Each structure stands twice: as structure tokens, then as C-alpha cells.
Amino acid sequence: MSKPQLTQRELDIMSVLWELGEATAAEVRDRVDPGLAYTSISSMIRMLELKGYVGHRRGEGKTHVYFPTIEAEAAGETALGRVLDKIYGGSPLKLLTHLMEQRRLSEPELARMRELLDRQPKDG
Known about the structure:
The chain has helices at residues 8-20, 25-32, 38-51, 72-88, 92-102, 107-118, and strands at 54-58, 64-68. By secondary structure, the protein is mainly alpha-helical. It folds into 2 domains: 8-68, Orthogonal Bundle (Arc Repressor Mutant, subunit A), CATH 1.10.10.10; 72-118, no CATH class. Strands 1-2 form a two-stranded antiparallel ribbon. A hairpin with a 5-residue loop joins strand 1 and strand 2 (64-68). Helix 1 (8-20) crosses helix 2 and helix 2 packs across helix 3. The two termini are 34 Å apart. Belongs to the BlaI transcriptional regulatory family.
């Protein structure tokens, strides 16, 4: 069964944890939004823990140190699937067309895309 979907703020928190490997709630808050109340970040991290995205260990004193329990790529597959279905009607072509119109791709990226396209099974 797949994990519950992440909100934008939860993705922001997960990005910090993926980048740092582990962090306290205060460290996450400082990177996500220093103006956000500590209790708000702490609550969001606890929700991520309940959803199965985050674990924790005891730090110094009463501090908890949080860490991701899922790889960024795995979460990205779920998020990309949602975008593909909801925004592009399930069409990889529409998604790829939009990507290529909005972003300049490097030659190595284009070469890799061509390689992937060449490996696709032919219809008929």
C-alpha cells in the first residue's frame, strides 16, 4: 500500500531532511521558514512520522533528531504520478512537452532522453 500524499509544506520539510540526513525540529524550521512557530513545525514533523516518512532518535536532553525513512526518489515517483494524472491527464507526452518548452536541457540530458526513447517498445 502506498504512503499518504505529502503537502507542499511536508515536501519542504522532507527536502531539508533528505539534504541534511537528520535534523532537529529547530534546524528544520530555520531552513523551511524561520518565522514559523516551533510548535507548528514540530506538529508537521510528527504528522510525517505518523505517515511513515520520518523517524526519530533521542538527541541531547529532550531534543529529538528526525531522519527520513523513505528515499527522495520514492517520494518523487508518487508526486510525479499525481502531477502526471491530475495536470497532464495521464499523458507522459504532455508532461515531457511542457518540460522541454519550459526548461533548457543540456546535451547530456538530451542524449539520455533519446536513449530512453529509443529503448521504448514500438507499437504495432
